[in-house]
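Progress report, Aim 2. The chain analyzed during this reporting quarter is listed below.
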Amino acid sequence: MYQYASIPGFIRTILVILLIYYGIKVLTRLFAPYLMRYVSKKAGQRFEQQFGQYQRPPETTGKEGEVTIDKTPEKTKTSNKDAGEYVDFEEVD
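Predicted structure tokens for the chain:
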């Protein structure tokens, strides 16, 4: 019979590496669904938290028939006059 001490060091190292590799492979297959569920749950919570910040505030109820118009300030367009002139061209085959 072989004893643990009689196995050469190189073969023992390879066996330990293979044992660790297959052990991690099996554990990954067992725990991957739980890990993915946890990660997706956390991502969903973060999304809901961030999305909740940008929701519109609840509308105030006024008198029936009252109309309110909210206007956003107009943005002024700025153009760069130093950019040059646009030239249209056709591609020739």
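The helical segments are 9-53. Residues 9-53 form the longest helix (45 residues). These observations will guide the mutagenesis work planned for the next reporting period.
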